[in-house]
Design a protein that fits this description.
Layout lengths: L2 E5 L3 H10 L4 E5 L4 E3 L3 H7 L4 H4 E3 H4 L5 E3 L3 E5 L4 E4 L4 E3 L2 E4 L4 E2 L11 H12 L5 E6 L9 H12 L4 E6 L9 H14 L2 E4 L3 E5 L4 E4 L4 E3 L2 E5 L2 E2 L20 E3 L2 E3 L12 H19 L12 E8 L2 E7 L4 E7 H17 L5 H14 L1
Parallel strand pairs: 1-2, 1-9, 2-5, 9-20, 11-12, 11-17, 12-13
Antiparallel strand pairs: 3-4, 6-7, 7-8, 10-18, 14-15, 15-16, 19-20, 21-22, 22-23
Helix pairs in contact: 1-8, 2-5, 6-7
């Protein structure tokens, strides 16, 4: 049996390992005891769900035949398809998959909102706010799910209609493919009375006096500051200048036998769980093509998708690939789709809802 080593048991790594279980000898290297459904962190912050809804033991989301190494990779050697872990062990495969997601640096002492540890304090503040000024947004660079800061601001404004909710967007103009999404979000913000600062690049954060200042000298006061910071890979020796690991954008191949999947690769598509899922399926197919040969090769076309809450009972849907994009809604269907996915996510990790997911995605493709 061919050996597959997967570094990172998040969304992409878990799905790939489960879909290939039994067909290859699989080792997943993942340090965390719990797998987190990251889109659910927004529901958690706003108080809609508890921790139990968005986390599951790592062992329980991996099929039994998969070997889980509870350790952190400290070195990756693509030439050998090998990984060294923090305890000095070496793991080598016929295939190597890097699915380590994005890491964040602490910039201006800002806290991130990518892990449960980070968001517990944010949830506490959002549920018991000590002031009315919320400032939500991001620093320049590639962030996880660019819709998340908007979604959080919509939900907070709906929860506290009297609050002053401000959204900080570093870009003056969105990239062309994100224009439909940006227009839809800006329209909703304006309807809700949310102030949007476009082209606001944070240059200073004064945590004591509670204000931020842009590179152009504009000052915005806050009581509650929720600012996302850009992602990069901690394996900097493998990264290109984007901070992420380069791949062929159609095949997700970094080097012979080495695939890089999900947030950690440099594909020009927003970093979303949906993109990670679709990329994982392409890689699984193409590995099976090589070892079983009973299918044709597939290409990843850049598809990413994100349902975004714009209120309670109201949601939007953003869809794009490498060539085109569309923003749909707001309607109640997208809200309920996203809510339902909080439960379906766990089944999506072993491909068991693909019978529903595939026709759904195909019908969305037809609309757009
Ligand atoms: C607040 C928030 C809201 C979001 N909302 C949405 C949404 O609405 N829709 C959507 O589609 N996406 C959303 N996303 C993005 C989505 O969660 C990510 O795109 C998705 O999880 C990426 O999957 P991944 O497998 O690439 O990385 P991850 O799921 O982050 O998994 C990476 C794994 O690698 C492990 N790892 C890291 N370093 C090492 C190492 N050195 N050794 C071993 N293992 C390592 C980590 O522990 C982690 O388990 C959101 C994200 C956040 C934070």
């Amino acid at each position: 049996m061919k050996r597959l080593v997967i570094v990172g048991g998040g969304n992409a790594g878990t799905l790939i390992s489960n879909l290939l279980a039994g067909k290859l000898d699989i080792t997943v290297i993942e340090p965390n005891e719990y797998h987190i459904y990251q889109p659910g962190l927004v529901d958690y912050i706003i108080g809609d769900v508890g921790e139990d809804k968005i986390k599951m033991p790592t062992r329980s989301v991996l099929k039994q035949s998969i070997k889980w190494v509870k350790s952190k990779a400290t070195k990756i050697i693509p030439e050998d398809r090998a990984v060294i872990t923090e305890d000095g062990q070496r793991y080598e495969g016929d295939y190597l998959i890097i699915a380590t997601g994005g890491q964040n640096k602490s910039i201006f002492n800002l806290r991130g909102y990518h892990t449960l540890d980070e968001v517990r304090a944010i949830r506490e503040e959002v549920l018991n706010p000590k002031g009315k000024n919320f400032v939500i947004g991001s620093l320049p660079g590639i962030i996880k799910c660019p819709a998340a800061p908007w979604e959080l601001s919509f939900l907070i404004k709906r929860k506290y209609p009297d609050a002053n909710v401000n959204v900080i967007i570093p870009a003056k103009q969105p990239p062309p493919l994100q224009v439909p999404m940006s227009n839809m979000f800006n329209k909703k913000a304006s309807e809700l009375g949310i102030k949007v600062y476009k082209g606001f690049v944070i240059n200073e954060v004064n945590h004591n006096e509670r204000y931020i200042v842009s590179t152009e000298g504009e000052k915005v006061k806050f009581d509650h500051l929720i600012i996302d910071t850009p992602i990069f890979t901690s394996f900097t020796e493998l990264a290109d200048k984007s901070g992420l690991i380069p791949v062929d954008k159609d095949t997700l191949i970094h080097k012979d036998g080495v695939f890089v999947v999900g947030d950690v690769n440099n594909t020009p598509t927003p970093k979303t769980g949906a993109a990670a899922h679709f990329q994982a399926e392409v890689v699984v197919n193409n590995i099976l093509y090589e070892i079983e040969g009973n299918r044709s090769k597939e290409k990843y076309d850049g598809t990413a998708m994100c349902a975004v809450y714009s209120g309670i009972g109201e949601g939007m849907l953003v869809w794009l690939n490498y060539e085109k994009s569309k923003a749909l809604g707001p309607i109640s269907l997208y809200y309920h789709m996203k809510k339902m996915f909080t439960n379906l996510y766990w089944a999506s990790l072993n491909g068991s809802i693909d019978v529903v997911l595939r026709p759904m995605v195909a019908s969305i493709r037809k609309i757009v």
